[in-house]
């Protein structure tokens, strides 16, 4: 194993007597009274700022302190510990996408500060591209949220809230490095896997803040087995640069003149190379260069008539891929693709003043949104001759006897939508008088939250998505201790318009034996979603939650084998298609226990039944059983240990289809354990280290149906300086 990364320990040591904001937040997050975040303010479930305990729809929260203790390099690492979330590897990449309630990433809307993130390869957001550096907290709302957030929120919403350290100047520098071991690393680099990050927050005035951040992850190729040309990782870098400006004036409370504004610009770059064995059993490589620019702005103003806000997003990305033979003497078959994608969103929202009618409080939020996306894709391919070329292609005969064919595969395609929504909440406090000790005190609060969204899409016309949520809070008195019971129920209609990538994009991974094609004839997906949950807590030591769901889906869009092949049967063709009827149902149970002031435990179990009702078979790539565990132990004031456990059950990766000649295939279940440690030497200096995947649970790369992790045991060491 490479141990060269241990030289990180030679980095300079600095000290500062002041206690940093990060420390304050970490200690607060782990305090017994705050451990469940019930008083934390969230926005996703109601589009208004409310305490987590009072949200009308079930919402889960992950805070900055926990994200740092997980040593999260990206959002993918952070989401692993949220109950009910599974991560699935994106086909043809090393990245991962989210899966909630058996609905994959195409149906779970990923937001940054309330604005959508565009997908890269395919039509799924790659969570490994989203740096965790600037995150203040993450909010996750499972279940159909189309009434609040429109298309793509059919399975839920993940909202990443960036940090806002108003009135504080600080600098954070960190580096970590690790290795998969000499038997697997395909590079003799000194530090084969490393991560650098830097963030600066500058308080220009008490109300004006500038922020800058840089995050780079460098990785070398690795292989699970000696002697294989195909690599399991990538060689290259993932870099995120961001700058932000925030300003506040007056008061931010509704009804009082004042407001705030924010502007954030971000660039993400990905430069990756992977070794692949071509379909003709030749050594080849796949290169991918991706660049994404993102500009988001928001302004809020409190007025006597309520609170108004306006937001804007523009995002543009270019994705260049190449599939090349290593042998320079055989260039026929080499191909290059370039895809240009952009999206924009404009949104205006009005939050009416809260009205009190006796014990009943009325809150109304309404908004108007505009969305657009655009896609264009080009292909260049080296052929032996210029014969048989399509009419949408141009050719260039080369002196070597080859022909370079330039094809406009996807001419500029566009989609537009105009949407309007309204969401109301009616909350009533209930006086039950004096309760007898040892008995249920009774209902304290009752809340109803109806909502509806109208969406008019340029390709599919108008659609209405209604929803209704309810929340009840009960006061319990047991053994002289006051407990609270919260129950939630919701029903909603989900709606998802096929995006441009579903309809037109060509994901060509011929070098690995398959190709995924878009389908212009796709129809929108519809779902009927029912969610129920019950949570009981004493607010200090114990927090228990049980939830159940049922999603009935019509016209589910999945990539399915067409039975067609290319290149003499070596490349299998998949195409996005509608499944007439599908269903996902299941339950999540979680327990969070503050065992002592220093030790916290979180456990969760998820049961899922996901089926294609048309053929009566299981939906692929959905595990029936999922277990998560998290232990946070403050050994001392300066030393903390974190243990993460995850079990992902077996899942079908191919189901029998007689017409396509396929059989049932399953990916085995597996356990994964991560151990992490933090050692604060001073208020400024923190060491951290860990071992991911302690048991080295990995896939068999010779089995194309094996979906276990592609990364094995990974020890690492890092250092962080905060001023």
Automatic annotation (TrEMBL):
Gene3D superfamilies registered for this protein in UniProt: TonB-dependent receptor, beta-barrel domain (2.40.170.20), TonB-dependent receptor, plug domain (2.170.130.10)
Transmembrane portions of the chain: none
Compartments (UniProt record): Cell outer membrane
TonB-dependent receptor-like beta-barrel domain location: 250-694
Alphabetical list of InterPro entries matching this protein: Beta-barrel_TonB, Beta-barrel_TonB_sf, Plug_dom, Plug_dom_sf, TonB-dep_rcpt-like
Sequence ranges assigned to domain TonB-dependent receptor plug in this UniProt record: 52-157
Membrane topology designation: Multi-pass membrane protein
Major location category of this protein: membrane
UniProt keyword terms in alphabetical order: Cell outer membrane, Membrane, Receptor, Signal, TonB box, Transmembrane, Transmembrane beta strand, Transport
Residues of the signal peptide: 1-22
Protein family according to the UniProt entry: Belongs to the TonB-dependent receptor family. Hemoglobin/haptoglobin binding protein subfamily.
Protein name per its UniProtKB record: TonB-dependent receptor
Organism this protein belongs to: Oceanobacter antarcticus
